[in-house]
Specification:
Elements lengths: L23 E7 L11 E6 L5 E3 L5 H6 L13 H25 L8 E4 L5 H7 L5 E5 L2 H11 L3 E3 L12 E7 L8 H11 E12 L4 H6 L13 E2 L2 H10 L2 E7 L6 H9 L5 H7 L5 H27 L5 E8 L1
Parallel strand pairs: 4-5, 4-7, 5-6, 7-8
Antiparallel strand pairs: 1-2, 2-3, 3-9, 8-11, 10-11
Helix pairs in contact: 2-3, 2-10, 8-10
């Protein structure tokens, strides 16, 4: 993908994909603490123009693909632990569902909702249970099949800027923890603008590099998730991205019950994260999986007061924005 500045013109290689500036300072570095797919160390630089973090050098497309395990996302199964995990995710996803449903109140109910990076499709199934038409999109063909077969969500495997959808097809598009995985996040926001109907809503969520958790954990913060996160946003940078791609930000949310407390727990003990254990095949028995899930749940519960506090200070470890297509 080609980086472009706010005028839509291509920027020089190595320039910031958000503002086009080539001026940057070293920021932080780290390794793959979550999945241990590589032992290399990766460095992030901070743009002096807009504050966006980006990997330098940027990995190639082939390298990026090698950083992802096949089971990067959650998928329910029939085990006791699997049922517990789905029940937990349903409970914490209600926070996301309420936020999105508030946006959908002003969207034509006949226009479908597209979730980009849908994974196993649980979020979309919950939106569909409220009577909305939904479509999922994920670059993983396995994830798209799971969303269809397990959750009954029609899904497509594609990148958004190459997706087989007609212009103005959707009333709303959601992107939860997607933009930070892209070398050129503006390309996805631009594609969303093209695919939304006039007045359509775009809801995005990213880790917040200016959060208290980021400052507390430094290179050990789970929100960095090197090397899969190619860029890092603060609140100012995310707003700038949306506004320069012709969206008006209506609401900003600093707390996520699904992500903020769990992110704290994963920062403390990344190999205990259920997604990490599944990718590393660490659970040798159903009983071991259940026991580790309960320990992880306990750590997450202990992190809730801190997550609430940082969000109240407008420094939550994730930021969610609801915007309207101009």
């Amino acid at each position: 993908m080609t980086a472009r500045d706010q005028t839509g013109q291509a920027t020089l290689p190595g320039a910031c994909p958000l503002c086009g500036s080539a001026a940057a300072t070293p920021a932080i570095g780290g390794t793959d603490r979550l999945f241990a797919m590589t032992t290399h160390r990766f460095e992030l630089i901070r743009c002096r123009g807009c504050g966006l973090l980006r990997q330098s050098p940027m990995p190639s497309a082939d390298e990026i693909a090698s950083f992802y395990p096949e089971t990067y996302w959650f998928a329910a199964d029939g085990t006791t632990a699997g049922r517990l995990e789905e029940a937990y995710r349903r409970a914490v996803l209600r926070d996301h569902v309420r936020f999105v449903r508030a946006a959908l109140e002003r969207v034509d109910c006949r226009a479908p909702v597209l979730d980009v990076g849908c994974g196993g499709g649980l979020f979309l199934r919950m939106i569909a249970e409220g009577g909305r038409k939904v479509v999922g999109l994920d670059r993983s063909a396995i994830a798209a099949r799971v969303a269809l077969r397990v959750q009954g969500v029609p899904s497509v495997s594609s990148m958004l800027d190459a997706a087989p959808f007609a212009d103005a097809s959707f009333g709303a598009i959601t992107m939860f923890h997607v933009l930070e995985h892209l070398a050129d996040p503006a390309a996805y926001v631009r594609a969303a603008h093209r695919l939304l109907k006039p007045g359509g809503r775009l809801v995005v969520q990213v880790p917040n590099i200016d959060s208290f958790q980021s400052r507390l954990f430094g290179s050990r913060w789970s929100g960095l998730e090197l090397p899969r996160h190619l860029v890092g946003f603060g609140v100012r940078a995310l707003r700038r991205l949306l506004e320069q791609e012709h969206f008006e930000v209506l609401r900003t949310k600093h707390f996520s019950l699904r992500d903020n407390p769990a992110g704290f727990a994963t920062s403390l003990w990344p190999s205990l994260d259920p997604t990490s254990r599944r990718a590393r095949q660490r659970d040798r028995s159903p009983g071991s999986r259940l026991a580790k899930d309960l320990v992880y749940l306990g750590l997450t519960a202990l992190a809730v007061p801190f997550a609430v506090f940082e969000a109240a200070c407008r420094a939550g470890s994730s930021v969610m924005m609801d915007s309207v297509r101009r």
